[in-house]
Write a structure and sequence with these properties.
Elements lengths: L1 E7 L4 E3 L9 H11 L3 E5 H11 L7 E5 L11 E3 L2 H6 L6 E3 L3 H7 L5 E7 L7 E2 L8 E9 L2 E8 L5
Parallel strand pairs: 1-6, 1-7, 3-4, 3-6, 4-5
Antiparallel strand pairs: 2-8, 7-10, 9-10
The protein binds NADP nicotinamide-adenine-dinucleotide phosphate.
Length: 160
C-alpha cells in the first residue's frame, strides 16, 4: 500500500519557502502517530529540512530519500534514484509519502490512500500541491478539530 500524508491549506497551499506555512502541534502529533514504525519516502529537500530541525532523520521510522544526485549518502537511509520504478514495484511494506511538492506530485497516480489534514484557515505561502483528483477517492474517515479536518481517503476500485 502506498499512502500520502499531507497538510493542505486553502487553494492547495502546502509550503512557505522550505517550511510549512503554519504550526499546528496537533497535526505534528497526528503525523507522528500515523507514520511511527512505518517506512517514509521523501524528496531530498524534505529530508534535509527534517535533518536541519532534528539533527537526524525521523526517529523510529525507516527513511527512504528520492534524489537524482548519484553522490547522495546518509547513514541508515535508503536512497532511490528512480522514483517511478520504485512506485511501480513497491516493496511489500506500506510506504508513506511525506513530501515535498515534487515527490507528492510525481506520486499522485500511484497512491492508494491519502491522509490529508485540511487546514481551513488562510496562511501566506508559495508552494502548492495541485492535481489531487478527489473524484478517484472516497473519504473513509473525518475528524474535525478547530481549524483542521483530519481525513483519510481510499482510492476507488475501478469497476469493469
Ligand atoms: N504541507 C505538508 O504536509 C508538507 C509536507 C512536506 C513538505 N512540504 C513542503 O514542500 C516543500 C518542499 O517541496 P520540494 O518539491 O521543494 O522538495 P521535495 O519534493 O522534498 O524534494 C525535491 C527533490 O526530489 C528529488 N527528485 C525529483 N524528482 C525525482 C525523481 N523522479 N526521482 C528521484 N528523485 C527525484 C530531487 O532531488 P535532487 O535535487 O537531489 O536530485 C528534488 O530536488 C516545502 O515548502 C515544504 O514545507 C509540505
Amino acid at each position: 500500500m502506498i499512502a500520502l500524508i499531507v497538510a493542505l491549506g486553502p487553494n492547495n497551499l502546502i509550503g512557505k519557502g522550505n517550511d510549512l506555512p503554519w504550526h499546528y502541534p496537533e497535526d505534528l502529533q497526528y503525523f507522528k502517530e500515523t507514520t511511527l514504525h512505518q517506512t517514509v519516502l521523501m524528496g531530498e529537500a524534505t529530508f534535509y529540512s527534517i535533518v536541519s530541525r532534528l539533527h537526524k532523520p525521523l526517529p523510529n521510522r525507516k527513511s527512504i530519500v528520492a534524489t537524482l544526485d548519484p553522490t547522495f549518502h546518509y547513514d541508515g537511509v535508503r536512497v532511490i534514484h528512480d522514483l517511478f520504478s520504485f512506485l511501480k514495484n513497491p516493496p511489500k511494506e506500506d510506504i508513506y509519502i511525506i513530501g515535498g511538492k515534487q515527490i507528492y506530485q510525481l506520486s499522485l497516480s500511484y497512491v492508494d490512500r491519502m491522509y490529508i489534514t485540511h487546514v481551513h484557515k488562510e496562511y501566506e505561502g508559495d508552494i502548492y500541491l495541485n492535481g489531487i483528483d478527489f473524484t478517484q477517492f472516497d473519504c473513509i474517515s473525518r475528524r474535525d478539530q478547530g481549524d483542521l479536518s483530519f481525513c483519510i481517503y481510499e482510492r476507488r476500485i475501478a469497476s469493469c
